[in-house]
Amino acid sequence: MIDLGISKLAMIGAVALIVIGPEKLPRVARTVGNLIGKAQRYVSDVKAEVNRSMELDELKRMKDSVENAAKDVSQSIQSNAQDFEKTWAEATHMASAGSSDDLLSLPVSVPEYRHPKKNWRLKQGATPNWYKARAGVRTRALSGAARVARYRPTKFN
């Protein structure tokens, strides 16, 4: 790398002032600054592109390793499923050979499926009821007549 100190830059500026002249020096300095800026941007773009390609290669290697792991898992699941089917077939065959009348005569009761808390009319909020009661938040909607009857001002006789 070029080692430029203040003394070297001052010498370069003095030589440029003598060679180029005081009239053209500001324009030349602007042009040199623009060229240096473009070169810096080009170098940073090249660095970014190299980094992106390196990251892309790393991601491809990761993808391959994840795919290989997924294949291994699927193969192990398939082999376990085949083993289970074999043992299930053996167990059912042994049970059916032994006492098939006893197993088939028992009634099987399956409860009906109910979705837990699936009532769209009841809105469950995150605020607890004890807080709503303390803060005076209405939890039930009143009809118009009920609201008038409840909040009607009392007559003072």
Automatic annotation (TrEMBL):
It is found in: Cell membrane; Membrane. Pfam families: TatA_B_E. The keyword Cell division does not apply. InterPro entries: TatA/B/E, TatB. Keywords: Cell inner membrane, Cell membrane, Membrane, Protein transport, Translocation, Transmembrane, Transmembrane helix, Transport. It is a single-pass membrane protein. Belongs to the TatB family. HAMAP family: TatB. Part of the twin-arginine translocation (Tat) system that transports large folded proteins containing a characteristic twin-arginine motif in their signal peptide across membranes. Together with TatC, TatB is part of a receptor directly interacting with Tat signal peptides. TatB may form an oligomeric binding site that transiently accommodates folded Tat precursor proteins before their translocation. The Tat system comprises two distinct complexes: a TatABC complex, containing multiple copies of TatA, TatB and TatC subunits, and a separate TatA complex, containing only TatA subunits. Substrates initially bind to the TatABC complex, which probably triggers association of the separate TatA complex to form the active translocon. This is Sec-independent protein translocase protein TatB. The gene is tatB.
